[in-house]
Amino acid sequence: MTDEREDAPDTLRETVDSSGDESLINELRGLCQDDSRGTLPTIAGYTLQQELSRGGQGVVYEATQIATHRRVALKMLLQGAHSTERQRIRFEREAELVAALKHGDIVAVWDSGVSETGAAWIAMEFVDGQPLHAWLKLQRAAPRGINRSVIASLIARIARAVAAAHRRGIIHRDLKPANILIDEHGAPHILDFGLAKPINAEDWSDSAAVTAAGEFMGTFAYAAPEQVSGDPDDVDARTDVWALGVILYEALLGQPPLRLEGSLSDIVQSIQDGAIIAPRQVDPGLDRDLETILLRALDADPDRRTEGPADLARDLQHWLDGEPIEARRDETWYVAGKLLRRHWLAVSSGIAAVLVLLTFAITMWVMYGQATDANNRLRGTLGMTWDVLATADAENPNQALAAADLGDMMQRWSAILQSELQEYPEIAAQMQIAVGRTLLGRGRLEEASIALDAARGLIDVEQPSLLGAGLLHEQGRVHYKRAEYTLAAEAYAAALAHRQALLGDHADTATTLHHLGASLLRGSSPETGTNAMHRAIDMRRGLLSNASIATDQRMLELAIANSLNSIAVAHAIHAPERALPLLQEALDIISRAGADAARDWRIGSLRHNIGACMIGLDRLPDAQRELEQALAIKELQGNAVQIANTQFELARLALRRGEAAMGAPLLAAAHAAQRKTLPPDHPARLRSVLLDIDLAVALGALQRAETQLRIAGALPQLDIDERRGTLAAARGEHASADSLLQQVHAERARTHGATSPATRRVARHLEVLWRTVSPDQARAWKKAALPPNVQP
What DSSP designation does 787 have? Predict the structure, then answer.
């Protein structure tokens, strides 16, 4: 259990690397209890032939209705009798709503009920087809491909079916290619109304039980800006229009209209901005009327968006018939605004730099008046600045070469600094630091390091200055992100000396002191690092007592909570009893600051850490509660690695509770996310390998455990020896297991203490090993496995 946010000592972190009121663990528990894999369930009146598909909550079977010999798709809640109330309500609503819809392009529901085991089911029209995206892929691969007229005609037909549902008062809310099947004749069939919402709230008296305020319903890639707000009252018929616009965009251009990257907050912001990639930027040959249809369907402002799916279908039909479309192009300034939002990440640093340059221009004008040389220099600098900004506009006909990405933009800024500001080294250094900080925030460590090194060549960092302190602090961040903790500590220490000399007790001084402590904690001086963290807390508390502005008070309080969390992380692995009160104090501070207990990522991170500590203290029911709450928050945020962190801890908890079968799917999900984002030698992935071995041994899969152990060469030797011991014990090799485990126990006790969770874990292994051989010896090991301050 270690700190996941290795690259961010200035944010709340979790003790491992990396919905609504029902957590994923409940669903996974249902999966483990579900016996439908391999064994077809029994439904009165139906004969089930085979499983067709399986998702997170439901499984679909091909079946035959005995009375009518009708072929049906029978959908059943996966958790059966273990499903939650909200899942059952949504499932029943789907049956109720779709049964009321009579449209040839909407999958019909014919029957519903509850099985003998308590599992809800619905029998639907069987569609022998493929999801829209798979169908399009096959059509594109065909010799003749697929033309845009066929796509426009198909989406218009889908839009008309959605309009029919709207006329019956139902908004789908989860339109996406996976929920649209195309049959062998090319006809669409819309399905999965499980997240549907009534257009009039009074038509659904218990709608609050289906969608709570603050809960996101849908799929991010197809969610409208108003949909990700989490307020169900903002969702109306135009929300389905946005989803249809995304589907049309992808079908026509082969890529999504938005770049959804980064954290959940970044993704939500991108969706809310509605900064879509201009269709003709993707394909300059796209018909302008089609582009207009797309732009209107994908307008972030619902009031400017195509009013309904029927209007979208009508415009597509006008285009197919060669008639004027009803949508009109946006005004020039509105298009300009969308262009700025579309390229905001690429130009935000450039705009900041322009402001710096403009400030510089004013300063120079004051200092030098009308001096010709200064004015010419400034005109040249600003001219180059606008040239760089122009590279952000890939549609600018006068721009021969647009910037490929943020790195390209930053390189052009560096060219300005080097060529235009040579005579003003401090200004150039400030700019280079700004460039470095921007690149650092985007994870471009090498380019950030180059910019910061260039700044260092312009100023004397040996002489105390705030500029030098800022530079050294940023260089410390680069080293920290690279896990070069000794170099990071050196840079932070130098920055701290500058800030203490010039600022004394100050928020910036405390920040650098905090970063220094984080580097020492991760490096070779954990005690010194802990002391530095405590000094940062004391400094912030002193500043807090004198702060008069509410914003300053809140920032200081959150910074104190951050430091408490960092200290706790340092103790969580081997001394969770010391970490737990610090985490609880941090949680109290953030809660008092007004954080949303059900949604705030900081609350989720702290609850994760608290749950991990409670596992180490054998407080397993408390750990379950904290980790489930953490997971619910993280699923709202959508960060795959952070979700994987908590899944890992839940898997570890399941193993500790003797429920290895419950832990296996959790670890598999966590490991899948880690493989996509983390290198093979990352500590989180190595810990997952260790837990995989432990689960395999617990499940009796000894061959798998041995294979995993054989390929785990990057693991610490002590961890390998411990697993060799447990494998030997599982094979009945008592003497070999006892020798290995006792050696590991002695070494762990020497390095981490007898009450460390890792030491006590080995004692538990030994207790099990001796249980049938020597009850007295087993009792001694059982006592050694108890948490601190717990009597046998």
Answer: P
Cβ-Cβ contacts under 8 Å for 185 (sequence gap 6 or more): none
Identify the three-state secondary structure at position 94. Answer: helix
Judged on CB neighbours under 10 Å (0-12, 13-18, 19+), 713 is exposed
* Contact indicator for 127, 211 with CB cutoff of 8 Å: no
Find the catalytic residue in 111, 174, 299, 315: 174
In this structure, are residues 467 and 426 in contact, taking their beta carbons and an 8 Å threshold? Answer: yes
pLDDT at 8: 38
CA distance 638 to 267: 9
Q: How far apart are CA 270 and CA 345, in angstroms?
A: 10
What domains sit in the chain, N to C, each tagged with a CATH number?
35-125 (3.30.200.20), 129-339 (1.10.510.10), 677-784 (1.25.40.10)
735: burial class by Cβ within 10 Å (0-12, 13-18, 19+)?
A: exposed
In the chain, which residues have pLDDT < 50? 1-36, 201-216, 328-349, 351, 354-355, 358-359, 362-405
What token pair was written down for 533? 């963290």
Token pair of 6 as six digits: 């290795």
Q: What is the pLDDT of residues 627-646, one digit of tens each?
A: 999 998 888 877 777 888 89
- Using DSSP's 3-state secondary structure scheme, residue 47 falls into strand
Within 392-484, where are the H helices?
406-420, 425-441, 445-456, 466-481
**In whole angstroms, what is the distance from residue 361 CA to residue 383 CA?**
12
Q: Name the one residue in this structure whose structure tokens are 């969390």.
A: 565
Give yes or no: 111 in active site.
Answer: no
pLDDT, tens digit, 9 for 90 and up, residues 363-386: 444 444 434 444 444 444 444 443
Q: How far apart are CA 403 and CA 587, in angstroms?
A: 44
Report d(CA 186, CA 300) in Å as an integer.
Answer: 31
Q: Tokens 């509105």 label which residue?
A: 334
pLDDT given at position 35: 45
Query: Which residues are within 8 A (CB) of 89 and not within 5 positions of it... i.e. 6 or more apart?
Result: 206, 209, 210
